[in-house]
Amino acid sequence: NAGVMQNPRHLVRRRGQEARLRCSPMKGHSHVYWYRQLPEEGLKFMVYLQKENIIDESGMPKERFSAEFPKEGPSILRIQQVVRGDSAAYFCASSPSLASYNEQFFGPGTRLTVL
Amino acid sequence: AQKITQTQPGMFVQEKEAVTLDCTYDTSDQSYGLFWYKQPSSGEMIFLIYQGSYDEQNATEGRYSLNFQKARKSANLVISASQLGDSAMYFCAMRGSNDYKLSFGAGTTVTVRA
User: Fold this and answer.
1) Residue B56 at interface with chain A, using a CB cutoff of 8 Å
2) Rounded Cα–Cα distance for residues B22 and B76 (Å)
3) Which of A58, B24, B29, B60 is the most exposed place for a label (fewest CB within 10 A)?
4) First vs last Cα of chain A: how many Å apart?
5) Cross-chain residue pair A100–B97, CB shorter than 8 Å
6) DSSP letter at A103?
C-alpha cells in the first residue's frame, strides 16, 4: 500500500511564475490536507479538501493560492505569480476519516524555492 | 482554537540516554488527540505516537512514550535509549475531535552525541 505521494519533491520558480504541487493520497483515503512549513517553523494548516469539495480554506492566502481535489486524479495546490515569501516546504496529508484518533499520513513534501 | 507550545528549541543528548521533549497545549475542546512527529534532515514527517484525551494510560510505541498530564495540559515525549538516528526535529501537534486540522508547535531539535 503506497503512502502519500507528492511531486515534484523540489520545485524552483522565478518570481511571477506559477507553481503546481501534486498530492496523491493513500489508497482509500478521501480527506486531503495541505500544510506549509516556513523555514525554522512548524507546519501551518492551509486547506482541507474532500473529493470535489473544499471544506476549509481558512489557512490559505486569499490571493494567488488555490487548491482542488478532483473526482479523478491527485489534489493540486496552485500558486500563481509566486513571490520569494512563498518559498517553503508544502506538505500534503491524508486520512480515511475525521475522527481525532486517525493520524494524518504525510507525504514527503515539496520544497518550493522562488528565485 | 488549539495552541501548542514547545519551549525547547534545541537539545543535546548522549547516545543511549533518555531525553524528554516538552509540549504544553491549550484547548477548550473536551475531546482531542495529541500527536508527535519526527522530521529528520531529509524533511519527511514521520508519525511517532498518539494520545487520546480520554485514554487513561500513557501511550507507548517502542522507545517512545508519551507522558500525558491532562490537568497540566502537557504531553511530553520521552525517547529512551537514544540512537544517533534519533537526531531530528520533533513536533508536537493536536487536533480537536470536531476539527480536522492539526495544530503544530514550533518544534524541538534533538542532536544525539556519540
Assistant:
1) no
2) 5
3) A58
4) 37
5) yes
6) P
Mutate to test the interface with B, among A58, A103, A105 (most CBs of B within 10 A): A103
The answer to whether the beta carbons of residues B54 and B74 sit under 8 Å apart is no
- Alpha-carbon distance of B85 to B91, in angstroms, equals 16
Alpha carbons A57 and A32: distance in angstroms, whole number: 12
Q: Is B54 within 8 Å of chain A by CB?
A: no
Alpha carbons B4 and A22: distance in angstroms, whole number: 29
In this complex, do A103 and B100 lie within 8 Å of one another by their Cβ atoms? no
- Whether B24 has a pLDDT exceeding 70, the answer reads yes
Q: In degrees rounded to 5, what are phi and psi of residue A58?
A: -65, -20
H-type helices in B49-104, by residue range?
A: none
**Does position B99 have pLDDT exceeding 90, yes or no?**
no
